[in-house]
UniProtKB/TrEMBL annotation:
One of its GO terms (molecular function) is hydrolase activity. Signal peptide: none annotated. It comes from the Bacteria. The keyword Membrane applies. This is YbgC/YbaW family acyl-CoA thioester hydrolase. It comes from Aurantimonas endophytica. InterPro entries: HotDog_dom_sf. Pfam families: 4HBT_2. Gene3D superfamilies: Hotdog Thioesterase (3.10.129.10). Keywords: Hydrolase, Membrane, Transmembrane, Transmembrane helix.
C-alpha cells in the first residue's frame, strides 16, 4: 500500500481537483458518481491488468513505448496544460481578485518551478515516499477547509443545466475517456513498472490508489456543495462551477480555510508536475538512448531527454487555452475524442499482442470526432456529443481488426526467426514442414549471372551486399580459406558501401578522415575454394561521434560463416582531433540509417536472396 498515495495523487491533476467541484453542481450527485467511479475504476483496472502474473509491465512497455510516442507525449502535455489552465482560471483570480495578472502568472510559475525541483532531485521511489507525506498534509488541509467553511448564504442562482452538459449527454464520453485514460499516462506506466521491480503488488497499489483517489474526489465534491454555487461562463457559453470553493473562501478574506484550500490545491498541482517531470525524463531517456535518428548527432542528448521542452509545450498550450477562454469541459474532451483511437489500440496491443496499428487513421478519426463534439457542444446539439466518442471508437475498429487479422502473420514471422537462428547455429540442413517436403534454407547468397570471380554488389534494403567466390589463392595449406581474407572482404564491402553512399568523396580535398576505431569478428565456420560467399554490411547504430557497422558473412552451402562489428570515427585531417559525425556523412548514409522498428533489427533469411541493384 506504500505505492497507493503516489498512484492517487499523480492521477488527480487539475482535472480531478476542479472537475469534481464542478460536476457535482452541473450534473448533480448522479453525474458526479458517474465521473468519479469511471475515473477510479479505470485507474484500478489498469493496475489489475498489469498486475497479472502473465504480464510484465516492463516488457510490454518496451514494445509499445517507441510505437505510441505521440500518444504518451500528448497525454502528458495535456495533463500539465489543463492543471496550469485550471489554476490560472478557477483559483488565483478568485483567491486574489485584486492581484495583477502578472502576479497570478508568477504564482503559477512558482508552483511549476517547485514541482520541477522536486521531480529533478528525486527518483520515483523517493517521490512515492514524498507523496505519502503530501497525502497526509492534503487530508489535514481538506479537514481544516471543511471545518472552517463559512456559512453558505442562500443562492439566488439556480443551476439550469443545458442539455449539452447533462449526465446522459456526457455518459459515453465520460465512461470511455476516463476508463482508457490511465493507459496513455506515462506516470502510471512508470509506477506499474517500478512497483513490479520492487516486488510489490500492482493490484494492491492501484486498487488502493483508486480508493484514495475516489475519497479525494468525494471530499472535493462535499467542499463544493458546502461552499455554495459560484458560476463562471466561458467564451463558449458553457457554465462552470469549478471555482465554487475558492470563491466562497475568498469572499471572507484571508483566513485559515483559504490557506488550507491553497495548500491542498498546491499539493494537487505539485504532485502532478513532479510526477510528470520524473516520468517524462524516464521515458525520453529510455526512448532516445536507443534512437538512431540522425538529428541526435546535432542535439545534445541531455537537452533532448530533458522534460523541460515538453513542459514548455504544456505551458504554451495553457497560455493558448487561457487566451481562448473556453471552459475546462471543452479542453478535456480530446481525451474522449482525439486520443481514444490510439489509446484503444494501445490497450489492444497490451492484451492481444498485435503487430502494428494505423496511427494515421486513429488520429484522423480522432480529429473528426473532436470537431463533431465541438460543433454539438458549441451549437447546443446534444446528440453530437456522444456521437463524437462513437466516431473516435470507430477509428479504432479498423486498426484493431487489422491487428487481429495480422495475428496469423506471427506464425510466418516466428518461422523466419527460427530459420535465422538455425543459420546462426550453422544448421542449414533440410527440414520437413507440414506444407511440403524437406528443403534447404538459403542463407541469403545473391544469385548472379556471372560465372567469373568479379564481385557482384549493391543494396538490399538497409544491407549493402557483396558476393565473392574464393579461389586457391585465398586458401591456406590445409585447403580452407585463410582467416585474413574474411577481414579483407569485409573491408572491401565497407569501402564499396561508403563509395555508393558518398560517390563525390575526395580524399584529396576532404576536411576530415574516416578511421577504423575498432573491429570485431566472430568466426563460425570454414569454407573451401569456389564456394560462393556473400558479405553483408549495414549501419548498426551511432552516437554523436561514432558510426558502428555490422557485418555478416554467409555461404550458400554452410550458412553463417561469421559476423561482427566495426566502429568508425571521424577526425580533423590537420589536427587529428575527433569530430562529431560530419553533416555530409549523415546526408549520404541517411537512406540506409537504421530503423527503430523491431522487424528491421532482426536479420531476415531472405535479405540476401533478392538481386542487389
Amino acid at each position: 500500500m506504500s505505492w497507493a498515495p503516489t498512484v492517487s495523487l499523480s492521477w488527480m491533476w487539475g482535472l480531478g481537483f476542479f472537475y469534481s467541484m464542478h460536476i457535482v453542481w452541473i450534473q448533480g450527485w448522479t453525474g458526479f458518481w458517474v465521473f468519479a467511479l469511471a475515473n477510479a475504476c479505470g485507474l484500478g483496472l489498469f493496475g489489475v491488468v498489469l498486475g497479472s502474473r502473465r504480464r510484465d509491465p516492463e516488457t510490454l512497455f518496451g514494445r509499445i513505448g517507441p510505437r505510441f510516442v505521440s500518444l504518451f507525449l500528448l497525454c502528458q502535455a495535456g495533463a500539465v496544460a489543463i492543471t496550469l489552465f485550471s489554476l490560472g482560471t478557477y483559483f488565483w483570480p478568485l483567491l486574489f481578485p485584486g492581484a495583477d495578472a502578472s502576479t497570478r502568472l508568477a504564482l503559477t510559475g512558482l508552483v511549476v518551478a517547485l514541482a520541477c525541483i522536486i521531480g529533478h532531485a528525486n527518483t520515483l521511489r523517493r517521490l512515492s515516499f514524498l507523496h505519502i507525506g503530501y497525502l497526509f498534509i492534503a487530508a489535514a488541509a481538506i479537514a481544516i477547509a471543511w471545518a472552517t467553511m463559512p456559512p453558505t448564504p442562500v443562492s439566488a442562482v439556480a443551476v439550469d443545466t443545458p442539455a449539452t452538459l447533462s449526465v446522459w449527454t456526457f455518459l459515453l464520453p465520460t465512461l470511455v475517456g476516463f476508463a482508457l485514460g490511465p493507459w496513455g499516462d506515462l506516470q502510471q506506466w512508470q509506477r506499474a513498472i517500478e512497483i513490479r521491480r520492487s516486488g510489490s503488488s500492482a493490484v494492491v497499489a492501484y486498487v488502493g490508489g483508486a480508493l484514495i483517489f475516489l475519497g479525494l474526489l468525494v471530499a472535493n465534491a462535499v467542499l463544493s456543495r458546502s461552499a455554495g454555487l459560484h458560476i463562471l461562463v466561458g467564451t463558449d457559453g458553457a457554465i462552470g462551477a469549478q471555482s465554487s470553493v475558492a470563491a466562497r473562501f475568498a469572499a471572507e478574506g484571508v483566513g485559515v480555510g483559504l490557506i488550507a484550500l491553497a495548500v491542498w490545491a498546491a499539493i494537487a498541482a505539485i504532485s502532478t508536475i513532479d510526477s510528470f517531470y520524473c516520468a517524462a525524463r524516464w521515458y525520453l531517456s529510455s526512448l532516445l538512448a536507443k534512437s538512431m535518428h540522425p538529428a541526435l548527432a546535432f542535439v545534445p542528448l541531455a537537452a533532448a531527454t530533458s522534460p523541460l521542452w515538453l513542459l514548455g509545450v504544456a505551458i504554451a498550450a495553457a497560455v493558448t487555452m487561457s487566451g481562448m477562454g473556453l471552459s475546462q469541459t471543452a479542453y478535456i474532451m480530446p481525451y474522449a475524442t482525439l486520443l481514444v483511437g490510439a489509446t484503444a489500440c494501445l490497450l489492444a496491443e497490451c492484451i492481444l499482442r498485435p503487430v502494428r496499428f494505423d496511427s494515421v487513421a486513429c488520429y484522423l478519426f480522432g480529429v473528426a470526432a473532436g470537431l463533431v463534439f465541438f460543433i454539438g457542444y458549441r451549437e447546443g446539439i446534444p446528440f453530437l456529443v456522444p456521437l463524437s466518442t462513437v466516431i473516435a471508437l470507430v477509428g479504432a475498429v479498423m486498426p484493431i481488426r487489422s491487428m487481429l487479422g495480422e495475428r496469423s502473420a506471427l506464425l510466418p514471422a516466428r518461422a523466419a526467426e527460427m530459420a535465422a537462428k538455425a543459420i546462426d547455429r550453422g544448421d542449414t540442413g533440410g527440414e520437413t514442414s507440414a506444407d511440403g517436403p524437406a528443403h534447404a534454407v538459403s542463407p541469403g547468397a545473391m544469385a548472379t549471372a556471372n560465372s567469373n570471380t568479379t564481385p557482384a554488389y549493391g543494396f538490399d534494403g538497409q544491407w549493402f551486399v557483396m558476393q565473392v567466390t574464393p579461389t586457391y589463392d585465398d586458401t591456406n595449406s590445409v585447403g580452407n580459406v585463410y582467416f585474413a581474407n574474411y577481414v579483407r572482404w569485409v573491408g572491401k564491402a565497407r569501402e564499396l558501401f561508403f563509395n555508393a553512399c558518398m560517390p563525390n568523396f575526395d580524399l584529396g580535398t576532404t576536411r576530415y578522415l574516416v578511421l577504423t576505431k575498432s573491429f570485431e569478428h566472430d568466426f563460425r565456420r570454414e569454407i573451401a575454394e569456389f564456394e560462393p560467399v556473400t558479405i553483408r554490411v549495414r549501419i548498426a547504430r551511432h552516437n554523436r561521434k561514432f558510426v558502428t557497422l555490422g557485418h555478416e558473412i554467409l555461404s550458400d552451402r554452410h550458412g553463417l560463416l561469421g559476423r561482427g562489428e566495426q566502429a568508425l570515427m571521424f577526425v580533423d585531417r590537420e589536427s587529428f582531433k575527433p569530430l562529431d559525425i560530419p553533416g555530409d556523412i549523415i546526408r549520404g548514409f541517411l537512406p540506409f540509417w537504421p530503423s527503430n522498428r523491431p522487424e528491421s533489427t532482426v536479420p531476415s533469411v531472405q535479405d540476401g536472396s533478392r538481386m542487389a541493384g
